[in-house]
Write a structure and sequence with these properties.
Radius of gyration: 23 Å
Shape: elongated
Largest sheet: 6 strands, parallel
CATH class of the largest domain: Alpha Beta
Order of helices and strands: HHEEHEEEHEHEHHEHEHEHEHE
Distance between the termini: 35 Å
Helix content: 40-55%
CATH superfamily of the largest domain: Quinolinate phosphoribosyl transferase, N-terminal domain
Strand order of the largest sheet: 6-11-10-9-8-7
Structural class: alpha/beta
CATH architecture of the largest domain: Alpha-Beta Complex
């Protein structure tokens, strides 16, 4: 699995710590003796897929390099409520100062990983369909959320606008049609780039296929229409389905024969996992 880039992690952590500690920690500095030491454990309040261990450790390391963080459960593991996932030992002040930022990250990441696992587990056995994310990510947290998607067993779509050619409905409208957009992309994009085009009807699908598209994105189509589209494609292009995808619908789309199902909900509206930091 593609690892989480440290440089992107540090950038996100720095911004988060500046938000929380720009004026210090008035409560901790008033209540806790400077040399007081403590042990605290990150505990799952509900069942979840664990994600964010490296980020959890990195946050506390940035707050106080003398803190020690122990990983008790690896990223990707499914745990029950009450499970201790990470422990941190050292100055109590430092632990308290890093607590909220560390939890914010791992709650978000574990929520994404848990959602991804739910969608992946909804794909029927024997189906080749991949579950992928989209670019509908939290600004500044894309690398972390996409890592969480992978931890949950799903795949990433294009990382950014420069990663692939994906002709959407507004591109089609601006170019004057599906064929015109695909032909222009083919003529100007790098030879290494595949051409993907979103279509919302079988007529647009036929136009895209005749123009030599590499990947078709079936947008908000009924399952029966998706099945018809897969038959029309007949292996000439990769078929992706998207739009209003729920775990309950994954099985029927996979059985219809699509190669990928992209799910914006993995990142744009996922519920954060419930994790607490308990002091001994």
């Amino acid at each position: 699995m593609k690892e989480l880039p440290v440089v992107l992690v540090d950038r996100a952590i720095q911004v988060a710590l500046e938000e929380d500690l720009a004026s210090g920690d008035l409560t901790t500095e008033a209540c806790i003796e400077p040399e007081a030491r403590a042990v605290a454990h990150a505990v799952a309040r509900k069942a979840m897929v664990v994600c964010g261990g490296p980020v959890f450790a990195r946050v506390f390391g940035r707050v106080d390099p003398a803190l020690t963080v122990e990983t008790l459960v690896a990223d990707g593991a499914s745990v029950a409520a009450g499970t201790r996932m990470w422990s941190v030992l050292g100055r109590a002040r430092s632990i308290l100062m890093g607590e909220r930022v560390a939890l914010n990250f791992v709650q978000r990441m574990s929520g994404v990983a848990t959602a991804a696992r739910t969608y992946v587990d909804s794909v029927p056995a024997g189906c080749k369909t991949r579950i992928t994310d989209t670019r509908k990510t939290t600004p500044g947290l894309r690398a972390l959320e996409r890592y969480a998607v992978r931890v949950g067993g799903a795949f990433n779509h294009r990382d950014d606008l420069g990663a692939a050619v994906l002709i959407k409905d507004n591109h089609v409208a601006a170019c004057g049609g599906v064929r015109a957009a695909i032909e222009r992309a083919r003529a100007t994009a790098p030879h290494t780039a595949k051409i993907e085009c979103e279509v919302d009807s079988l007529e647009q699908l036929d136009e895209a296929l005749s123009a030599g598209v590499d990947i078709v994105l079936l947008d908000n189509m009924a399952t029966s229409t998706v099945a018809d589209a897969v038959k029309r494609v007949a292996g000439r292009a990769v078929v992706e389905a998207s739009g209003g995808i729920t775990p309950a619908r994954v099985a029927e789309l996979a059985r219809a024969g699509v190669d990928a199902i992209s799910v914006g909900a993995l990142t744009h509206s996922v519920q954060a996992a419930d994790i607490g930091l308990d002091f001994e």
